[in-house]
Design goal:
Elements: H1 2-23, H2 27-38, E1 44-53, E2 57-60, E3 65-69, E4 72-84, E5 87-103, E6 116-132, E7 137-156, E8 167-184, E9 187-198, E10 211-222
Antiparallel strand pairs: 1-4, 1-10, 2-3, 3-5, 4-5, 5-6, 6-7, 7-8, 8-9, 9-10
Length: 223
């Protein structure tokens, strides 16, 4: 976690240095950028991102099982509406298939996963969020989000056997930030890091909420 914070601080100082250098550029560049920033933001934005999701461990109180997720990737689509310059409200849908070690809570002689086995599961995130930051050139971005995370389609890797539970929606909220670059008033790219807390019932097996750390890179287009 400390390494992530240091990287973000270094990147922030680098962006400040770039902006300071740009401020000393030729007057024609400044005038052109000023004209771009005076244009209104588009009413809506659509976007797509790919994320790198850190592994986490979840104790499931209903089944008595433990899910030790490994690293995986996430594809995420977004739709946003502009609230004011540089601020939007949006919804997103993220999808990933994650590897995990599935630790059985009960011994089932009819199951090929007697104690622990390698498995896969689908993780779906449906979120609403507030996004801040956006202008031509380099800029900071931040996100506050809340919604639901669904764990489903648990299957063993060796036999493709279905494992419980069938589906599990959990309230989720998170926050994060990063850096963006606007090519124009209606298009930009960004990299950001998010921390999501998943409120999953563990029936006392865990005292802290599982956390999903995500590193995202994506783009947005306004219309």
């Amino acid at each position: 976690m400390l390494r992530r914070i240091v990287v973000m601080l270094v990147a922030a100082f680098a962006i400040l240095a770039v902006d300071a250098g740009a401020g000393r550029g030729v007057s024609s560049q400044i005038g052109r950028r000023g004209r771009q920033q005076s244009e209104p933001d588009p009413g809506y934005w659509v976007g797509l991102s790919i994320g790198y999701v850190d592994g986490t461990t979840i104790n499931d109180g209903d089944t008595g099982t433990i899910w030790r997720f490994g690293y995986t990737s996430q594809i995420r689509a977004t739709l946003e509406k502009t609230l004011q310059r540089g601020v939007t409200a949006g919804v997103s849908a993220g999808f990933s298939d994650a590897p995990l070690t599935y630790v059985s809570g009960f011994v089932d002689p009819h199951s090929s996963c007697v104690a622990a086995c390698d498995a896969t599961a689908s993780i779906t995130q449906l979120m609403a969020y507030i996004h801040g930051g956006g202008s031509p050139g380099f800029h900071f971005v931040y996100d506050l989000e809340g919604g639901a995370t669904d764990f489903s389609n648990f299957r063993t890797k060796s036999t493709d056997e279905t494992l419980p539970p069938s589906s599990k929606y959990d309230f989720t909220f998170g926050f994060g930030g990063g850096l963006g670059y606007g090519f124009s008033q209606i298009s930009d790219i960004y990299v950001s890091e998010m921390t999501d807390l998943v409120l999953h019932p563990s029936n006392g097996a865990s005292t802290t909420a599982p956390r999903l750390f995500q590193f995202r890179a994506g783009f947005r287009v306004g219309f």
